[in-house]
Design a protein that fits this description.
The chain has 132 residues and is an alpha/beta fold. The protein contains three helices and four strands; from the N terminus they run βαβαββα. A four-stranded parallel β-sheet has the order 2-1-3-4, covered by helices on one side. Strand 1, helix 1 and strand 2 form a beta-alpha-beta unit. Helix 1 packs across helix 3. The longest helix has 21 residues. The radius of gyration is 13 Å and the shape is globular. It starts with a strand and ends in a 5-residue tail after the last helix.
């Protein structure tokens, strides 16, 4: 089973959405996690609402600290464009998706980021040979 960690600064939008897509699309073939270098108090309500439109429930999620994953190894670590705010983690593969933080974007732009995350997660799962 492959292990993937998605990282952004607050772990409130992008990385939470990526984790949800990876878990849903990868089913029992992947362990997906998300974390933030400076986690927010909660998952962004707009991320919860816009993921619900696609059938994913983020309502019970919480923002997690990157420190909780120190010392763990991953097959892939994906940062979401947070630069130096997201320190390196042990991984066989590292990617930076350089996606804008959607928290202040208009609804259509937020959805566009969500949809781009889904496309990239699908590609990543295929490359890791865990696609549905």
């Amino acid at each position: 089973m492959k292990r993937v960690l998605f990282v952004c600064v607050e772990n409130a939008c992008r990385s939470q959405m990526a984790e949800a897509f990876a878990r849903g699309l990868g089913a029992d073939r992947i362990e997906a996690f998300s974390a933030g270098s400076r986690p927010a108090a909660a998952v962004n309500p707009r991320a919860v609402a816009f993921m619900a439109e696609r059938g994913y429930d983020l309502s019970g999620g919480d923002a997690k600290s990157l420190a909780a994953f120190e010392g763990q190894a991953f097959d892939a670590v994906v940062t979401m464009g947070c630069g130096d705010a997201c320190p390196a983690m042990a991984a066989a593969r590292r990617e930076d998706w350089a996606l804008p933080d959607p928290k202040s974007l208009p609804d259509d732009a937020f959805r566009a980021v969500r949809d781009e995350i889904e496309r990239r997660v699908r590609r990543l799962l295929a490359e890791l040979a865990v696609s549905p």
